Amino acid sequence: MYNFSKFISVKMERKEFIKKGMIGFGMVASGAFHKLIKSDIKDDKALNPFIEHKSTGINQKTNTSSKFMAKTILHKAETRGHANHGWLDSHHTFSFADYYNPERMNFGVLRVLNDDVVSGGMGFGKHSHDNMEIVSIPLEGDLEHQDSMGNIAVIKKGDIQVMSAGSGIMHSEKNKNLTQEVKFLQIWVLPNKKNVKPRYDQITIQTEDIKNNLLQILSPNPDDEGVWIHQDAWFHFGNLDEGNKQIYKFKRTGNGLYVFVISGEVTVETQKLSSRDGIGIWDVDAVNFHADKNCEILLMEVPMLLG
Q1: Cα(17)–Cα(13) distance, integer angstroms
Q2: Cα distance between residue 22 and residue 100, in whole Å
Q3: 194: closest CA among 222, 221, 165, 219?
């Protein structure tokens, strides 16, 4: 277990943030030759990113305009960090790489939510991670995975990929196609156990299972629905028709819920959200959803405190 007291009210200056190299990859793939070439971007090995408030596990100002009784944090799509590396076009909900915002470091143990577009034949070359739960959700195209455990796989829309980096893992992720972009969400969750045995898993969800339903795609239990991670977190995915209503009930007391709108429009309690908007909610037992237009949404219930 982590000693949570070590993380209370941590401050990180911009120079120190950049020094720690938060991009999370050390090489890129050449589209012309499909060979790996070195990059000057550091990997995440020195990453110690968790910054939290004493009571909530976040370091951001609450959404005072919300009429909802729970505490909320609103992240409109256009307020995200943005970096276009040519081969990689990425939007960052939380501070990452050269995007540094001390008020947007995390939501509880949800540390990274990147919305990535990778050009044909390009990708993240072989690089290392440790002590991080990494979830990839393809939205379009084919993403090819290889790792130091010998896994080779291609994931596409409808697949959910998870890696427990644990004591250390090397992997690469690249666009399988030369002429088509691949779009995917890259999500990092801080684990509740350190130095576990690295592992990889993936599942395929069926279209009919998410239609007007919030389908569980991740949990802490290997025997439960979806993939699993070393954290008391639950992810749900839904594809809702206009007018559909859903209610989400929290799995664990004290957790928060981060909602990310992949497409369409939805009202979360009283807050209207559009494509790529996000909202964090905590200090409540359930959350109501109303699809204002056809929409795809990702729900991430996570502990607000690390421990």
Answers
A1: 6
A2: 10
A3: 165
Alpha carbon 276 to its chain centroid, in Å, reads 13
Per-position DSSP letters for 165-213, written without gaps between them: -TT-EEEEEEES-SSS-EEEEEEEE--SSSSPPPEEEEEE--HHHHBTS
* Confidence tier at 306 by pLDDT (50, 70, 90): confident
The CATH number assigned to the domain holding 186 equals 2.60.120.10
Q: Which residue has the tokens 């540390």?
A: 111
Enter the tokens of residue 104. 């947007």
What is the domain extent for residue 260? 4-303
Contact at 8 Å (CB) between 258 and 107? Answer: yes
* Whether the Cβ atoms of residue 275 and residue 262 lie closer than 8 Å to each other: yes
Question: Could you report how far apart the first and last alpha carbons of the chain are, in Å?
Answer: 6
Structure confidence by residue, pLDDT tens digits, 211-268: 999 999 999 999 999 999 999 999 999 999 999 999 999 999 999 999 999 999 999 9
- In this predicted structure, which of 43-52, 78-87, 158-167, 292-301 has the lowest mean pLDDT? 43-52
Q: Please return the burial class of 63, using the count of CB atoms within 10 Å of its CB with bins 0-12, 13-18 and 19+.
A: middle
Q: Which of 268, 274, 269, 270 is nearest to 293 (CA)?
A: 274
Distance of alpha carbon 116 from alpha carbon 97, whole angstroms? 13
The whole-model pTM stands at: 0.84
d(CA 222, CA 196): 15
> How far is it, in rounded angstroms, from Cα 51 to Cα 94?
12
Give the tokens for residue 58.
Answer: 């976040």
Number of domains present in the structure of the chain: 1
Read off φ and ψ for residue 164, nearest 5 degrees: -100, 105
pLDDT digits (tens, 9 = 90+) for 19-54: 343 333 333 333 332 333 233 333 333 333 333 333
Q: For 18, which DSSP code? A: H
